[in-house]
Design brief:
Blueprint (H helix, E strand, L loop, with lengths): L1 H18 L2 H9 L5 H18 L20 H4 L43 E3 L7 H6 L6 E3 L2 E3 L11 H8 L12 E5 L5 H6 L5 E6 L7 H7 L4 E3 L14 E7 L7 H13 E10 L9 H13 L3 E6 L2 E5 L16 E2 L17 E2 L34 H22 L11 E4 L6 H5 L6 E7 L6 H6 L3 E5 L12 E7 L17 H11 E11 L1 H13 L2 E7 L9 E7 L10
Length: about 575
């Protein structure tokens, strides 16, 4: 009897499942409560509105968020595909899944060691992660000495220090005399190569992913060296085409010839005509990597690169100044991109397996033809002419920012030009006029070009400055507490639709992100209309910033105000841990 009852129950269950197909269940499911994401979005929006009105403060995040990077969160990325390192690229959560809270400093955090002393030592307590020192100390990366991390300047391929390595490169590459100015260091470690090039007047954008070498980019930025979290995976890197005079890889382990040479082709997109490519380490004359080395040489040959030298495990090529020879090189089937291809766009753009046309840019901007540094800083860049009336606009912009920075220093009591300010970000850089006006100060400036604005990033690089594309409705790819000064000319436009005052995202979310990347006791300077500055001031107080509002300089519009804010030093209470 029991067996018959069991069979009957099983039959009825199967009948029920067949009867109530997903289509039949849909009306039932539609009456369920809305998904959690919708509720979270409403809660996030209500909290942001309360903060913007001045009714709420933003509370600290839990202690576990001390190094929080929303778009490079290992908990999210670990669930993604490993193919072409997709999981190590940017993957940003929707705003409702990003905590609206203030990232706390670690226990024992101190005001960073000042530049230039910071190039060689930083406080251990500001990022107490010993993994690199333990694993790479014998290669000269870094070591622990008392309360400091010490940086001898070494690397895996130059354990005796980057200085000795640079002396070798100088035999083949013009690292002195201003011929080269902008460099890209791929897989940079703690950026000792880029730090050493500063003495030669070369400004290096160093990048590496957030990976098992915990906090390598955070160490670089704490040292005062330009650096950025990025991964060469499935997308173009967020830089304009033909920007770097030198591209360097020291044991970066990028498979340049994989995926139809997509990675080498991306490097070619970024390298200025006549620029230099240096690869040290595998696969260059490396044991058991003979095929990979042969393939690398074949790709360089197909793209018409000139071999300058192969010195033991270091290979140096020079990119041709034109693209006329490529159609005759069919060994690998690599072709030029269509003339309609825009090589300058690079924000969430998939990698391409065609070569960007250097002839798409009219004018002389190749290495050897472009003016030497520092003359190129204030020369009108060829690519400024991509904008209508670009030449006139560039000259006006240069004069405007020379005047404004002078006003900042004399009237706003900013510490520009002192060791207190080293890492600077211009969040709406346009032609890089703000950075150019600071060129005589001991600072470097990350020029950020909003991805939804007309592209002038190539002109910034032509000036000998560096920067990236970014959309400020998303978090930036850097660690917390990495910039001394954030500068914003027109904060409202960063989150508005093009040609409209309608917002794409929340001003509160943007300012919480600014707080995340700003160092304690760091400075924020925002220029905008009085109405916007009033809103910003409310939010700033909710972030525990101290503020002062100033009139603009004599040449600025009367409808513009300037807010100067300082991020206060605070610690988590014991009950928040």
């Amino acid at each position: 009897m029991r067996l018959r009852d069991l069979l009957l129950a099983t039959f009825l269950l199967l009948f029920f499942l067949l009867l109530f197909t997903p289509r039949r269940l849909a009306p039932l499911l539609s009456r369920r409560p809305p998904p959690l994401a919708s509720a979270a979005a409403r809660d996030h929006s209500r909290l942001a509105a309360a903060v913007e009105s001045g009714a709420r403060r933003v509370e600290p995040c839990p202690a576990g968020y001390v190094d929080h990077m929303p778009c490079e969160d290992p908990r999210r990325s670990s669930q993604l595909s490993r193919e072409m390192n997709y999981y190590r690229e940017r993957h940003c959560p929707p705003p409702e899944e990003t905590p609206l809270c203030l990232v706390p400093p670690p226990d024992g955090y101190r005001v960073p060691v000042r530049w230039p002393e910071s190039l060689n030592k930083i406080w251990h307590s500001n990022m107490p992660y010993n993994k690199i020192a333990d694993r790479k100390g014998h290669q000269g990366w870094m070591k622990i000495e008392g309360p400091h991390f010490i940086f001898p300047g070494g690397g895996t391929m130059f354990p005796d220090g980057a200085g000795h390595y640079l002396e070798k490169l100088k035999k083949y590459v013009p690292l002195t005399g201003g011929v080269l100015r902008t460099a890209l260091d791929m897989g940079c470690g703690v950026a000792s190569f880029g730090g050493s090039l500063l003495a030669e007047g070369i400004l290096t954008m160093s990048f590496a992913p957030r990976d098992s070498h915990k906090a390598q980019i955070q160490f670089a930025l704490e040292r005062g060296i330009p650096a950025f979290v990025a991964m060469l995976g499935t997308r173009r890197l967020p830089f304009s085409s033909f920007s770097f005079d030198l591209v360097h890889c020291s044991r970066c382990l990028i498979p340049f010839t994989a995926y139809n040479a997509s990675y080498f082709i991306e490097v070619d997109r970024l390298l200025r005509p006549g620029g230099y490519l240096v690869i040290s380490g595998p696969p260059v004359q490396w044991a058991k990597q003979e095929k990979e080395w042969a393939d690398l040489q074949a790709v360089a040959r197909a793209l018409c690169y000139e071999v300058i030298a192969v010195d033991r495990n270091t290979a140096i090529w020079r990119k041709p100044t034109g693209d006329s020879c490529l159609p005759n090189q069919n060994e690998l089937g690599i072709k030029l991109c269509d003339e309609s291809d825009d090589s300058t766009v690079a924000w969430y753009i998939k990698l391409k397996n065609c070569v960007s046309r250097t002839s798409s840019v009219k004018g002389d901007y190749a290495v050897g033809s472009i003016p030497k540094w520092p003359d190129r800083l204030n020369r009108i860049p060829v690519r400024a002419g991509l904008l209508e009336d670009g030449t006139d606009i560039f000259e006006d912009d240069t004069r405007r920012w020379t005047r404004r920075v002078d006003y900042y220093k004399k009237s706003l009591n900013l510490e520009l030009g002192t060791p207190s300010v080293r890492n600077v970000m211009d969040m709406n850089a346009f032609f890089g006029g703000f950075a150019a006006a600071l060129s005589s100060d001991p600072v470097w400036v990350m020029n950020v070009l909003p991805a939804n604005k007309p592209s002038t990033l190539s002109a910034i690089y032509d000036r000998g400055l560096i920067g990236v594309y970014h959309d400020w409705c998303e978090p930036f790819s850097t660690y917390p507490r990495t910039y001394d000064l954030l500068h914003v000319d027109g904060i409202a436009m960063l989150i508005e639709h093009q040609g409209s005052k309608r917002r794409r995202c929340s001003l509160v979310d943007l300012m919480v992100e600014m707080d995340r990347i700003l160092r304690p006791e760091g400075t924020v300077l925002i220029r905008d209309s009085p109405e916007v500055i009033d809103k910003v001031n409310h939010i700033a107080h909710a972030l525990r910033w101290t503020t002062a509002i100033h009139e603009g300089d004599s040449g600025s519009p009367e409808t513009e105000k300037i807010l100067v804010a300082t991020k206060t030093m605070w610690k988590l209470s014991s009950e928040s841990r």
